[in-house]
Amino acid sequence: MVFLAQSSPDAAQGLFDAAFALFDRGGPVMWPILVCSLVALAVTFERLLAFWKYNTANFYFRNRQKEVLGLTRDGRFDEARTVARAADSPICRIFGSALENRAAGFLETLEAASQLELDHLRRGLSVLDTTITVAPMLGILGTVTGIINTFNMLNAAGMENPTGATAGIAEALITTAAGLVVAICCLFPFNFLVAQLKRRTTELEQAAHHFELAYNTGLAKSAPPPQ
């Protein structure tokens, strides 16, 4: 046990030193690749948290959503708006906005509020998409700069000492691999988040359709009888 406790920090330190040495051999292009990876990692965790909050809120206030639909279907629009405003869920916010502005334009407000919620979910996905495209291009840029350094070293040392060019070749290979690894790692969460966005879009479209039907039913019930 004492041996494991002593060897674990040493192994971690050795792994860190090896990673730092590999990063240093990759040349200056490794810095923008590192920035891209950190930004993509932050966006991924932030978006996962945002989708989790969205799903949790809609699940927690699902009974409120049914209550708002029932009140709207009965033509009790003011009560439905009060209940919707009291529930902190995206779908209830959409219902509340549509009811609050029903005199100015119910359908327009319903669509605009739905798009606003989707825009909140869509935010940040363009960063991951850009990272997937830019990271391999930065790797190619590192390949070019590494090859240039290789030729410069060959010109300086001459063909009789080609071992000096290995640093440039290593830079070219490391940056290419780093760019591809960052792009591949970003591709999985990006596709997952896009799939979640499509599911939430379908969910909001269905909720808006049911709410529109309930509103039309409520209008018919609340309309004064013909003379």
Share of residues in strands: under 5%
**Radius of gyration, CA atoms, in whole angstroms:** 29 Å
* Proportion of helical residues: over 70%
Low-confidence stretches: 1-6
Tell me the count of domains.
Answer: 1
Class by helix and strand content? mainly alpha
Q: Sum up the overall morphology in one term.
A: rod-shaped
Q: What is the count of DSSP helices, taking H or I runs of 4+ residues?
A: 8
- Biggest sheet architecture: none
Extended strand count: 0
CA(first)-CA(last) distance: 92 Å
**H-E string:** HHHHHHHH
Mean pLDDT value: 85
Describe the protein in words.
The protein is an all-alpha fold and 227 residues long. The protein has one domain (28-216). It is 88% helix and 0% strand. The chain is built from eight helices and no strands. The protein is rod-shaped. Mean pLDDT is 85; it is low at 1-6.
